[in-house]
Specification:
It contains 8 helices and 22 strands. The protein is of the alpha+beta class and about 375 residues long. A 7-stranded antiparallel β-sheet has the order 3-4-15-12-22-10-7. A hairpin with a 7-residue loop joins strand 3 and strand 4 (about 70). It starts with about 30 loop residues before the first strand and ends with a strand. InterPro entries: AlkB-like, AlkB-like_sf, ALKBH2, Cyt_B5-like_heme/steroid-bd, Cyt_B5-like_heme/steroid_sf, Oxoglu/Fe-dep_dioxygenase_dom. It comes from Aspergillus pseudoviridinutans.
C-alpha cells in the first residue's frame, strides 16, 4: 500500500459533487409520430411533489368590470418550480413561429419574439388508444371514428405525460374546469415578449378558462380592458414569479387583453435565467464548426455561441486551450474549471448568438409560461 504524507492527514476530505439536474438522465420517454423526438417523462423528484399542489390558496380578483381572476402566489413551490423549469426547457421541442404578411406590394417575413410549442386538440376530436399500435390516434369526439387527415392544417399532437400531469393538477385546483389544449411559450431573454391579445379564438368556445403558469425569471403580466364605451377599468399589473399562476375565467377573455412586455436589464431569478442581451442570431453546430481556426475561432458554452478570436491572448489557460475546442461545443471542458455565472463578464463583448434548439441543444435562459386552454 502506498504511504501517505503527513500533510495528507490534515487535508479536508472533499465531498462528492452533487449531480446536477441536467446530468440526471430521464428514466422513460413518451413517443408519438407527431413529436419531433421522444419527450421525457417527469423525474420522480418533480412528479412526487405535484400531488401536493397548489402550494397556496388563490386570491380572487374581481374588482374591475368583467374581470374574474384567481391568483396563486405560488401554485408550485420554488424548489420544484425551478427544477420543472430546467426540465421543460431541456426536453420540449421549442421553435420560433415564422409567417409572412403582405401590405400592398411589400412582403414582410415575421419571426415571433418568443419560442413556442403546442399540444392538444379542440373538443371536436380526441386522442384514443390505437388497437394496432402503441401510439394514440385522433378520432371524432362523438362518433369515435378516425378523422380525415385534411381536417387540421397542422397535425395535432397529444399532450405528453410531463405536461398532462400538470394539466390534471390545474384542473383539480380550478373548480373542475376542463383543459384540452396546452401552449408553452419560452421567453429566452428580456427582449422576448408577447403583445396585447386575448385568448378568445372561436374554437375555445364562449367564456373560455385560461390558466397561465409561469416558471423561471420574474416577468410582468399586464392586462387592460378592451376599449368599450361607458366602461372605465384600471389596468392590471402582476409580477409573476417562479411557480405563480393566474387563472382567467368568465367574461375575462371577451373583455380584457393581456401581454408579457419586453423587459430591459437583469431578470430576477436564478443566475442561469439572468439576461441583459438583445435578440441574437441562432446558429447550428454545423455553422459554428466552420469557425475553427486561430484567426476565426468560435465556441459554444452552455448553448451560447461566442467569437473568442480576439480573446485568445487574454485567456488565462493560454491560446492552445481555446484552439483545441475551436468550432465545437466546449461546455464540458468549460465546466471543469468554471461556473456558468462567469459568462456574464463576457457576453456583451464576445457572444454572437445562441445555438439552435434541438433535442439536445435548446435555447437557454428566461421565463417559461404555460397556457392551458379549455
Amino acid at each position: 500500500m502506498a504511504k501517505r504524507t503527513v500533510e495528507s492527514f490534515y487535508k479536508p476530505i472533499s465531498k462528492p459533487k452533487k449531480p446536477r439536474i441536467e446530468d440526471t438522465p430521464p428514466s422513460s420517454y413518451s413517443h408519438h409520430p407527431s413529436y419531433r423526438f421522444p419527450i421525457a417523462d417527469l423525474p420522480p423528484s418533480i412528479a412526487n411533489a405535484l400531488p401536493n399542489l397548489p402550494a397556496t390558496t388563490p386570491r380572487s380578483i374581481t374588482n374591475q368590470p368583467h374581470l374574474d381572476l384567481l391568483y396563486y402566489r405560488p401554485f408550485i413551490p420554488p424548489p420544484t418550480a425551478r427544477e420543472l423549469f430546467h426540465f421543460l426547457r431541456r426536453e420540449l421541442p421549442f421553435y420560433r413561429v415564422q409567417y409572412t404578411i403582405c401590405r400592398g406590394p411589400t412582403t414582410t417575413q415575421i419571426t415571433t419574439p418568443r419560442f413556442t410549442t403546442v399540444f392538444g386538440v379542440d373538443d371536436t376530436s380526441l386522442f384514443t388508444p390505437s388497437p394496432n399500435t402503441s401510439d394514440p390516434i385522433l378520432v371524432d369526439s362523438k362518433s369515435h371514428t378516425p378523422i380525415p387527415s385534411t381536417k387540421y392544417k397542422s397535425t395535432p399532437r397529444p399532450i405528453p405525460p410531463c405536461l398532462d400531469i400538470l394539466r390534471q393538477r390545474v384542473e383539480a385546483a380550478t373548480d373542475g374546469a376542463r383543459y384540452n389544449f396546452c401552449l408553452v411559450n419560452y421567453y429566452a431573454s428580456g427582449d422576448d415578449s408577447i403583445t396585447y391579445h386575448s385568448d378568445d379564438e372561436r374554437f375555445l368556445g364562449p367564456n373560455p378558462c385560461i390558466a397561465s403558469l409561469s416558471l423561471g425569471a420574474k416577468r410582468d403580466f399586464l392586462m387592460k380592458h378592451k376599449p368599450t364605451e361607458g366602461v372605465e377599468a384600471a389596468p392590471v399589473k402582476m409580477a409573476l414569479a417562479d411557480g405563480d399562476m393566474v387563472v382567467m375565467r368568465g367574461e375575462t377573455q371577451a373583455n380584457w387583453l393581456h401581454s408579457v412586455p419586453k423587459r430591459r436589464g437583469n431578470l430576477s431569478g436564478d443566475d442561469r435565467e439572468l439576461s441583459m442581451a438583445t435578440s441574437l442570431p441562432i446558429y447550428s453546430l454545423q455553422d459554428v464548426s466552420r469557425h475553427n481556426t486561430s484567426k476565426d475561432l468560435w465556441i459554444v458554452i452552455d448553448k451560447e455561441v461566442y467569437d473568442v478570436t480576439q480573446f485568445q491572448a487574454e485567456h488565462p489557460g493560454g491560446e492552445r486551450i481555446l484552439q483545441k475546442v475551436a468550432g465545437k461545443d466546449a461546455t464540458d471542458k468549460f465546466l471543469e474549471y468554471h461556473d456558468t455565472s462567469i459568462l456574464a463578464r463576457y457576453r456583451d463583448r464576445l457572444q454572437v448568438g445562441v445555438l439552435e434548439e434541438t433535442k439536445a441543444q435548446e435555447p437557454k435562459k428566461g421565463f417559461l409560461s404555460r397556457f392551458f386552454r379549455s
